[in-house]
Amino acid sequence: MNLFSHGGAKGVTGSCHELQISPDSSLLIDCGMFQGNESKQIKNQWDIEFAIDKIQAVLITHCHIDHVGRIPALLAAGFTGPIYCTRATALLLPLVIEDAIKVGVTRNPSLIKAVINRLDKQLIGIDYGKWQNITLSKAENSLLVAKKHSLKVKFKQAGHIIGSAYIEIVWSEKGKKTRIVFSGDLGAPYTPLLPAPKSPYQCDWLILESTYGDRQHQGRAVRCQALKNIVERSLQDGGVILIPAFSIGRTQELLYELEEIIYQVGQNKSAAKNKQKCWQDLPIIIDSPLAAHFTAFYRQLKPLWDKEAQQKLKAGRHPLNFDNLITIDEHREHLALVARLQNSNEPAIIIAASGMCSGGRIVNYLQALLSHPQTDVLFVGYQAQGTPGREIQTYGPTGGYVLLDGKRIDINAQIHTLSGYSAHADQSDLVNFVKRMRIKPSKINLVHGELSAKASLAKVLNKITKAKIEWQ
Fold first, then answer.
1. Distance between CA atoms of 469 and 461, rounded to whole angstroms?
2. Which residues contact 127 (CB under 8 A, 6 or more apart)?
3. Rounded to whole angstroms, how far apart are CA atoms 408 and 256?
4. Which of 379, 404, 421 represents a domain boundary (last residue)?
5. What is the spatial distance between Cα 266 and Cα 274, in angstroms, rounded to a whole number?
């Protein structure tokens, strides 16, 4: 077996890994889009520059754009095999792909419909924890049967976003089994709404993400209090809180936490009446049609929520559909709201994509409000190098500036980063994922991380395992 990475090995975007099973057969795990500086280092990410004739199937860990955004290009290149993922991912994926095509290729409805129809024919949703046999090409399959070889995969809860999974792959050869695990993106324990990932019993070869391999996140209680403090400070001077957030996962987690704060303030009999009223009257605005669609899907997928969220539902609460929540659909409504907030002191929380400020409606808000001292910008997710989000995050606290659509915008707003809201596991979580395996891997490949994160994570992993650890 060999591993070839066509993206996501040297950075944090463009995840695309090819696992060679035999000289004539391979599996492709994810096929994501490059973002930030990484997108500038390739000629055209809509061109598939690797051979696809030996790829028997595609396995999708989850439907974030940096893991699935190049699937249309893969289809256009002639891939006609099955695309396996969890049932929840199969439900969400067409929306993500449609958005990726609109942003990067065309807005032609007939072309978009053709791609989605093709995707639907190849997409196969699988239940968590169920083994799926992979059928190889006829000639190859006959050879495997004769030699008593087999290949099967299983999707396990990853806790990153709804539907996300790490993937176990078992290759059986004359009675000997080799177990390969692709972590995809692992979520942090105690992430709102989602169960924490549980390590597999055993693994021979682990391909492990390392996004936050060099740092620890804030605890959930700490980050929730920090969120509450930022909002209340902003309420005092009538500012707007801008939260660039990914449409899937981060937006829903934020809504969940904000509903909890509003509920707790309302239940606190000792809280000042004016503070209670401020929270109860505070508009929380989702200004992202895609995020609104995914929030509706999250509501449909309640059976996948964790025990805490299920208890809230039983108590009659609606964590993703509460009174303060407002959704902006039409673009003209969006533009009108931007203009209104630019010329008023109305308090509001705006949650809008894109999460790295590289496009979408958040850019209009930043252009209008980033220079206002009353504005707060709250980063709750990873900001890749070369993105406007990373620039604001880096230079904003010192009063710098950022270029948005070629315009220089001075940063007078308050800039905050709450790392605890990351959907990615931190260093301790990644180490524990390995530590809790009863039979640990003999080989680990670190992917999906910057060089410093991989080096730091490898140093800690070397203390708990004798595995050979490699990264690019």
1. 8
2. 86, 87, 155
3. 35
4. 421
5. 11
Helix H or strand E encompassing 157: strand 149-157
Q: What is the DSSP string of 71-102?
A: HHHHHHTT--S-EEEEHHHHHHHHHHHHHHHH
Residues 201, 258, single domain; the answer is: no
Distance separating alpha carbons of residues 376 and 29, to the nearest angstrom: 38
For 446, how many CA atoms within 13 A lie in the half-sphere containing its CB?
30
Question: How many of the other CB atoms lie within 10 Å of CB of 93?
Answer: 24
Which pTM was predicted? 0.90
- Contact residues for 102 (Cβ-Cβ < 8 A; gap 6+): 112
> What's the CA gap between 368 and 194, in Å, rounded?
35
The 3-state DSSP class for residue 110 equals helix
In this structure, the answer to whether residues 48 and 114 fall within a common structural domain is: yes
Residue 66 · residue 13 · CB < 8 Å: yes
Please list the helix, strand and coil fractions of the chain in percent, rounded to the nearest 5, in that order.
35, 20, 40
The DSSP H or E segment spanning 410 is: strand 407-410
- What is the CATH classification number for the domain harbouring 233? 3.40.50.10890
Judged by phi (left if over 0) then psi (alpha if -120 to 50, else beta), residue 342 lies in alpha
The number of distinct structural domains making up the chain is 2
* CATH number of domain containing 70: 3.60.15.10
> Residue-wise over 242-277: b if at least 16 C-beta within 10 A, else e?
bbbbbbbbbbbbbbbbbbbbbbebeeeeeeeeeebe
Which amino acid type is present at position 336? Answer: A
**What's the chain's length in residues?**
472
Question: Using an 8 Å Cβ cutoff, are 56 and 26 in contact?
Answer: yes
Residue 264 φ/ψ, nearest 5 degrees? -65, -40
CA distance 110 to 112: 5
Q: Give the angle subtended at the CA of 119 by the CAs of 113 and 121, to the nearest 5°.
A: 105
Q: What is the pLDDT of residues 279-312, one digit of tens each?
A: 989 999 999 999 999 999 999 999 999 999 999 9
Tens digit of each residue's pLDDT (9 = 90 or more) over 330-365: 999 999 999 999 998 889 999 999 999 999 999 999
Report the C-alpha dihedral over residues 89, 92, 97, 102, rounded to 10 degrees: -160
